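quick one: zinc ion bound model?
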Amino acid sequence: MSLENKKMKCITCNTEFDIKSDTKPFCSKRCSNIDLNNWLNEKYSVQLIEEFNENDN
Ligand SMILES: [Zn+2]
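yep, here:
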């Protein structure tokens, strides 16, 4: 087994980090939160647009 030196790239910032990290596929908790926030923001803005269109009709 040679998992020791395996690295992977963070999907948020592209930094290489240890594959054994608890935070994968992110290099850190911070990048994990950034990705989550991006996802939530997208979802939230789509909802806002839908509500706006309903009210407008
Ligand atoms: Zn990162």
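The radius of gyration is 18 Å.
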